[in-house]
C-alpha cells in the first residue's frame, strides 16, 4: 500500500513538473537530465559584432523554490552592455534541480 502511494505522489510530481515547463518555447522538457542552449530572442540589432557577454542565473529546487535573478537587465549590467546583439538561454536540469542562465551578447 505504501509503495502505491509513493508511486502516486511521484507521478503527480512528474506531471506537475512537465506542466510547469511546457510553456517555454525552446524547452526540451526532459525529466531526468537536460542540458540545452537555445536562442532566447532574435529581435535585436544584428548589424554589429558582439564584443561583450553578460550572464544572469537563477535556480529552481523541486519546482517549489526559485532563487536568483535571470533577467536580461541583470545580464546587461554584468558586462556593461548598452546595445544587444542576441540573447541565448542555457537550461540545465537534473531531476528536481533546474538552473537557467541568460547570456546577453552585445557592446
Question: Which features does this protein show?
Answer:
single chain, alpha+beta, elongated, 5 strands, 41% strand, five-stranded antiparallel sheet, 107 residues
Sequence stretches where pLDDT stays below 50 over 5 or more residues: none
Number of helices: 2
Lateral strand order in the biggest sheet: 1-4-5-2-3
* Total separate domains: 1
Alpha-beta classification: alpha+beta
Number of strands: 5
Taking the sheet with the most strands, its summary is:
5 strands, antiparallel
Q: Distance between termini? A: 60 Å
Mean pLDDT: 82
SSE order, as H and E?
HEEEHEE
* Helix content estimate: 25-40%
Strand content: 35-45%
> What would you report as the Rg, rounded to the nearest angstrom?
17 Å
**What is the general shape?**
elongated
